[in-house]
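Researcher: Let's do a round of design. I'm pasting the structure tokens now; please hold your answer until I've finished.
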């Protein structure tokens, strides 16, 4: 089965706005998804990107307008300035990694639940209690929030290296097996189109 490498951060608003569209596209084309949460800030430092707070005010203003407009277009609730953002993405990322290794639940649903918790539900996704609820809601053992932290940290670090080597410079980012790269939730239609031609 063909595979999409999905590089993302559970605290990225554009990861949230992608919702479950990647999962629907992959299912329609019989493609699997390798979920690779990674440290976007660490990648920015290596690829010339800037965290939102360090961008020019014009870019910051556009980002807020774009987020609100895109959320309305997609009919998704979103707070452009959530209470718990920025926050540490590592705990939520470790949980996603542990869930993918454990199997038995829906990793896409988990990733979306964590992003939604941050961007639509005013919850801190660095909080174990929030992570546990999201794990349970996606069909995973909530105890995964406590287990496999070392493995999660190792894979999280490895995902950053893989992202850099694959030409990734932001999130969400999708890389197909034939090395076609798509950056941003607004490129999902093109990913769908590309997979249909393969």
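Researcher: That's everything. Go ahead.
Model: Designed sequence:
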């Amino acid at each position: 089965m063909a595979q999409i490498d999905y590089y993302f951060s559970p605290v990225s608003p554009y990861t949230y706005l992608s919702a479950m569209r990647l999962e629907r596209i992959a299912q329609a084309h019989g493609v699997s998804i390798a979920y690779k949460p990674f440290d976007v800030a660490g990648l920015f430092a290596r690829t010339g990107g800037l965290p939102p707070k360090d961008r020019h005010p014009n870019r910051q203003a556009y980002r807020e307008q774009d987020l609100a407009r895109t959320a309305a277009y997609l009919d998704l609730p979103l707070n452009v300035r959530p209470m718990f953002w920025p926050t540490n993405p590592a705990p939520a990322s470790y949980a996603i990694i542990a869930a993918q290794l454990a199997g038995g639940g829906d990793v896409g649903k988990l990733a979306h639940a964590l992003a939604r918790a941050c961007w639509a539900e005013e919850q801190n996704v660095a909080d174990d209690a929030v992570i546990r609820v999201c794990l349970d809601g996606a069909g995973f053992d909530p105890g995964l929030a406590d287990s496999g932290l070392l493995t999660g940290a190792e894979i999280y670090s490895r995902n950053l290296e893989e992202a850099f080597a694959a030409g990734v410079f932001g999130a969400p980012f999708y890389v197909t097996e034939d090395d076609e790269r798509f950056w941003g939730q607004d490129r999902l239609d093109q990913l769908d189109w590309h997979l249909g031609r393969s």
